[in-house]
Amino acid sequence: MAWTVTYDLEEFRAAAGGFLRAHPARNTTLLTVVSSLTVAGSGRYGDEPPVYGWWTGEEQGPAEGAFLCTPPYPPLLSALSGEAARGLARTFARDGALKVTGVNAGRETAETFATAWMDLTGAVSGVEQTHRLYRLDALTPPDPAPPGRPRTATTADRDLLITWYEGFARETAALMDDVAAQVDDKLGHDGITVWELDGRPVACAGISRTIADMARVALVYTPPELRGRGYAGAATAAVSRAARAAGVKDVLLFTDLDNPTSNALYQRLGYRQVEDHLVLSFSAAEHAVPAVERAVSTAVRAVPAAVRAVPEQGHPS
């Protein structure tokens, strides 16, 4: 039983790709990050090379868990057994090559890893983001729909979309890499739908590439002056309908659990809960604010609560 760690994306895909594709909903972010790295190269998310790994429960056996890390983003973990999560913490602590500033995973795995990491290193953990993963059941578009119509964004929309994505990053305090590169990546696979009114885009909704019959809606945005009119819901319904029409089996999205408006909206559209995810941060105990950080650390060991409103999944995939 051991972790294998590599900087070789193709080695990782060969070893862990089958495991990830067998559970595309639970591994949605891992799959979309791997897809983006395959298309755009190892520098897609930053200058430091990505690190990958997989867990085998038996010698020479198939992968039973996986992680990847694209600095500056924290390690992204699949669902792991307690033994695998603790083993990964020991691997990171022993090797020391990867600066572990946090972790991004399903709630149980994130908490297990964090507890092991704190025990090994004396670090303090805080909850940065708490998200809920939803899967589309039966789509129920807004009725009545707002005025306007959907269309696929083109390169003519690029400058506006960059401005909107930059606004999204500012408003949510989301850690985002090169925004222009994100927009170009999504435009490259027709991955952005805009809601248009009288020839003017008023909202947008993005979607990932389809992998293993799965695609994920992300970066739904309406400029502040146009909110409250139903445009975001209409754009989300449109991109969801298009995905289903294209044969996508699992249409997914993440929401911020601190945002009751978005959670209610997506449930009205027909999205149903799959599981909760946490993005946790780690800091040295001597750098922490004792009273606050001890409270957060205790919460991680029990039932963490969100402390930041970031309506994304902790990685701009």
UniProtKB/TrEMBL annotation:
Gene3D superfamilies associated with the record: 3.40.630.30
Residue ranges constituting the N-acetyltransferase domain according to the UniProt record: 148-292
Alphabetic keyword roster: Acyltransferase, Transferase
UniProt key word Transferase: yes
An MF annotation (GO) of this entry: acyltransferase activity, transferring groups other than amino-acyl groups
InterPro entries, alphabetized: Acyl_CoA_acyltransferase (IPR016181), Bact_Acetyltransf (IPR050832), GNAT_dom (IPR000182)
Protein's recorded name: N-acetyltransferase
